[in-house]
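I trust your eye. Have a critical look at both lines of this record:
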Amino acid sequence: MAVSRSAPADFPDPVGLRPFVGRRRETEQMLHGLDEAIAGRGRFFLLTGEPGIGKTRLCDEVAAAATSRGVPVVWGRAWEAGGAPAYWPWMEVLTGLASLMDRESLLAALGEGAPLVADLVPEIRAHLPALPIIAPPPADEARFRLWRTVVTLVRRAAEPNGLVMVFDDLHSTDQSSLLLLYAVVREMRSLRVLVAATCRDVEAQMDRDTSDLVSKLGREAIILGIRRLDRATVIDLVRRRAGDLRPEVETRLFDSTQGNPLFIEEMLRLRDEEGDASIVAGVLPSGVREVIRQRLDRVVDEARDLLELAAVAGDEISPRLLAEASHREPGWIAARMAEASRAGVFAERAGRPRFSHALVREVLYRELGPEKRRAFHREVGRALESLTAVETALPLMELAHHAIEGPAEDLPRAVDFAVRAARRATDLTATEEALVVLNRVIAALRNAGDPPALRARVLLALAETQIRRGDAIAGTSLCCEVATLAATLGDPALLADAALTYGRVFVFAVVDPVMVQMLEDALDAQPAGDSATRARLLARLAGALQPAINAAEPARIAREAIATARRLKDRRALLETLHDGLSALMDVVDPNERRRLNLEVEALALAENDPERLLRTHTRLALDHLALGEFPEADARIDAFEKLATELRASWILWRVPLFRAMRAVTHGRFAEAEKLEEEARTLALAVRDPQAERALILHHEGLIRAAERHEDMRTLDSRARYARATFHNGPAWQDLGSALVFTRVEDQEAAHAHLDSLPESLRPPADNLFALSFTAEAAAYVGSAAFAQSAYDRLLPSAALYVMLGMTQAQWEGPVARLLALLAARLEQWDLAVSHFEDALARLRRLDARPHLARTQYEFGRALLQRGRAADAERVRDLFATGRAIAVELGMQGLVRLIDKRGTALEGH
């Protein structure tokens, strides 16, 4: 926490004062578990029982025994008062584990998860050297990485002498902490660790999710149900604590307490103050809360106010915070705290002052009237904020808690702190806690009549949290609700935020009409003139409109967005706009333009220290270089991408490295190597559960077997590839384009014709879209009309020096555009043009050593010369077929061998 919670030195330790009796069986069982853990067979004990039954006291005894044997002990305690940050118990535990190691050992133990743990526990960051920036991974990947890191840290900390970890009050622990604990105890059998956790089995107010998590933990644990003490043990405890008492006093003590140790202690405190008569005579309280309440009623008013303020502030006691919140001098606070300590209201555990039992704080808090409670929450919240010197260190979750519980006029502060707390919790992979705090403030707003501006802000934060945790449906639905509120409020900035938050959901090759409409509405609502918001909306809209069969409009919008950002002369806005706008330009516009823009993004990302955008730019530049026939530069970019992704520990995207290298292997005919790299990519993608990987792998494999001329496999795979393309925008058109290309390559005229004819007239041929043209041109040259072929030729001719690179969805390099121009010219019987284009294509392919495409083009050149029907071409045709066949045989391109042999037979017949 941001505020020091240090303890006065004279607070007594309850462990040293209270006798420990009646738990022999449980103690022996846990000490045997400690022996097992030290021997390498970890044990997890879950201690359950009613409040005050002695669960924590038993853990104290086992911890003391472990310490006496040189086994380190670390504690993690829940924060029952509300408002604790995510992973609160683990912050204590991880700090304790870090203290057991030197800096080098700690850094080695944390490994690639060091930045995540350091963000969670600032005390650990202070002990580590400067850590590298990491690209933010998807929520699931970040969480699993954190879990793996913590398990490794626990393992390393336990290696020398064993380890004891105690987690107190699971019933009040946040869900993220419970999930992390579950990840650790699942590994217990291989750890030299004893884990003990306590949990109330009655009166614990757990929500369903928390209850389910505690139940899951219980299935991994040895459960010790801590029962009330029997009569003989109670008498023994009473005599150790107070000496010999009259029999009727002892009897009444047992009857009143029924063996609950905390109740016994409280009754003995009552006796100390008022004598035996207080126990024997009169009507005794019916429960421990009433005993506590009765004792607290004797506290003078000004001290009672301090205790109530402390109860609002939380489980632990900060004299500095109490002084600030109560507007009292530190000396007065210290005196009142000492009185409370002597009365048994405060105690010290592990060097920190806190209430002697959670029930003491609970009684104080429940007895507060509503107005006084809300006022105290306001004072504590403002004191917390005042005492935090650095904005980034603000205890946002705690501040949100106090503002939510404070007066109604503090709701704007509650919303502000809740939104910021949720964002920080999500950054720490604790999305459960983010959802909890946001839903709490939504409930508070509902009770206040749901002021729409505040509600919209919270819903937008909730939408972002849902999207970041992977629940896109829930998140985008909330964005739509915020957009409706924004329209009602007439708030264009809010509408833009809703649209851009919705726009965080990006599934390549899918056009979401709701997203498009929301972005367009947000643009219409913006004030006239240039702005960073307008530029970002335009750029995101351009990407949202892809893939479009006609790419001219998305490309125009992307260029408009970039021009807008340039006029602003805002480097950050330009970086974001260029990066987003390029998603609409990749694959479909001249790679010379893309390369120039991507190099600009690279420079801006370096200047802005934005590794995430730099990472994606490496992949885009690799595709640009491949489209320009610059293989060495492309390979260097793939290497740079792998290096940066490794440095950033971006394991969720590393599967693309072997996929790119598989594509490069295909280019040179190393098909077996390509398939191994494909499998490596699939393994990495499955490990990080990337939902877009399977489609990319199917379509890449389609390109591989097409280049390898495995014709039967091409026919078989076509149904799977069609399924992958079905998710594209205008899916049926993309399906027919892909199938037309398959049947063109295997020279099945009827099937190729059927698929090409299935395209709607408006899509034949597409305008300004190199990606789609690469599919249609080959089929148009084979079975299309002359008009279709002429139109495709005219559209492709300006790109004659380029190469077909299908990069964003399927990682396929398809050779020079000159080859497609040659095929189209041959279809139009413009033979001199066809020969010129074929010779250009062959020269390019030889220079690049792209042997599969060279063999295919040699065959197609020979086929075209045969169609021309000149006797003088016969020798050249034989040479083209022979050289193409030799490559095909060497590379195992059996389909192409069959086609060449078939054409060769026809040639010999002339």
Remarks:
- The first helix runs from residue 14 to 17.
- The chain has a mean pLDDT of 85.
- The two ends are 90 Å apart (CA to CA).
- Residues 816 and 844 are 7 Å apart (CA to CA).
